[in-house]
Structures
1.
Amino acid sequence: MSVLENWDEWKNFLGDRLNHAENEGMNGGVISNLAFEIGDYLAKQVESKNPQEKVLADLWSVASQEEQHAIANMMVKLVQNNGSH
């Protein structure tokens, strides 16, 4: 089963990656830009595996670039306290 198929596992996976990036000294601006690039790639190239991802992809598809950055930043906030720590 892919990590993308379960929303909670996906959030934990992202949380682990975010924690790693922060521990390596990556600043918030770089993290924000990476989140935007990953969100853009997923929305355009990867089929949604669960209802939550479908909602995000649908929102992404109608959002302006500024709104897409906001969505990416909200995802970062959402997963900040997730992961295995």
2.
Amino acid sequence: MSLLPFMRRKAESPAAPSEATPRFLSGWSIEVMPRTAEKVEDFRAILPPGTRVYIAHIDGTAIEDMVATAKRIAAQGFDVMPHFPARSIADRAMLSDWIARYQGEAGITEGLILAGGRKDPLGEFQSSMDLLETGLFDHHGFQRLHLAGHPEGNKDIDPDGSDRMVMEALRWKQAFAQRTGAKLALATQFCFDAKPVIAWVDRLQAEGIELPVHIGIAGPAKLQTLIKFAIACGVGPSLQVLQKRAMDVTKLLLPYEPNDVVDQLAAHKAANPSFGIEQVHIFPLGGISTAATWANNRTGQQPALAVNG
């Protein structure tokens, strides 16, 4: 692999965004919480067959509610990937209990491993690497593990604004995957601008990091809602896209849809097949059904009930 940064391969005849986007979005995943999942009577009525559903574990949520949500969605035929926030897990026994419950009660063998939103750890775990090092996921037969990615930087890890510690951690995680055979991927924070995403993915490749990227995007929502979430979640330069839109009175009251960022990333992927984005992950900040309808319309897919009758 060439280590020259930001190199591009020009396709002979790159697909237009209208052609590239359905292919790029195909296989999209979506994120829910137990309380938002309760509002969906049947996920088969809105999600295509085989959709992966992440279940966000917000600090303070009971594991019983997480497992019950995972069991329900898995029973409807979807791949379920619950969050394992390191700083909200007290010790090895607690982690083992969570993993065993997900597997035993819901048949889950996937998880998103992340540090979590707590500033101070509940117990002995500080980072996703701490959880991976326990070996418990492999012991319990978990086959796919995703890790958090931050295309616009992570001030918690690199407060100086660099990416030195983040890159060091990613090299450790890639070595872990090579050593253990674990199926790892990076599921990222949502972004609103394709340029920093492309630069970040190119940077990973230039550093020799080959973990596939599942890029996060925000589903359709009110502009004010997105700005609130973006600030709370520390979204960086691409926040300017929303701020610019907010200054346009003709667009201020219109719902935001991620068409531009997705079309641009899709066109780039079509022109550069080795570009490291593997799938799209949707944060349904404007509602699960709204996000699913948008994605289905953009891909031409149908919900599972429509497909299976």
